[in-house]
Amino acid sequence: MTSLRKDWDTYFMDIAFMVSTRSRCPRRHVGTVLVQGKKLLGTAYNGAPMGVHDCSEAGCMIVEEFVASDTGMIKKERCIRTIHAEQNLLLFTDRVDREGSVVYVTDQPCWTCANMLANSGIVEIVYHRPYQKDFDKVNELMQQRGILFRRIGNYVPPSDTEVQDGS
């Protein structure tokens, strides 16, 4: 009996989603992996700094901001307790390992993370869930830097990696 073998994108994105299950953020679990060639060099997820109470223990630190849009002012809320997965990946991997590498991340990077990744030595970012708020400017940044930036559209994450309410 022959089993189907997953392609590399699916394999590494599955790992990113499994890594995301380590997150204790009740709003969103994000995972990322660093790959050079076909070798996994590092993983990270979003969460509070080491040794500090996380959102599940101390609650989210929500900051409200108002952003102008075509229809007027929109109220946005974001948690500032959590370090993003991409930021943790950059903190816990070496620059020499990032040179020429690919980052797989469950969610499209926000503007801040995209800026950091653009300066990290990587050559490609592969993500699954889009983040429309920053898509245009992140996409333009990646084009300017010559970093391949692509979404895996038909990908289905492993079923045991879904964020459950109250987790």
UniProtKB/TrEMBL annotation:
This protein's record includes keyword Chloroplast: no
InterPro entries: APOBEC/CMP_deaminase_Zn-bd, CMP_dCMP_dom, Cytidine_deaminase-like, dCMP_deaminase, dCMP_deaminase-rel, Deoxycytidylate_deaminase_dom
Cofactor or coenzyme needed: Zn(2+)
Residue ranges constituting the CMP/dCMP-type deaminase domain according to the UniProt record: 7-149
Pfam family, one: dCMP_cyt_deam_1
Tree of life domain: Bacteria
Family: Belongs to the cytidine and deoxycytidylate deaminase family.
Name this polypeptide is given: Deoxycytidylate deaminase
Source organism (scientific name): Cohnella yongneupensis
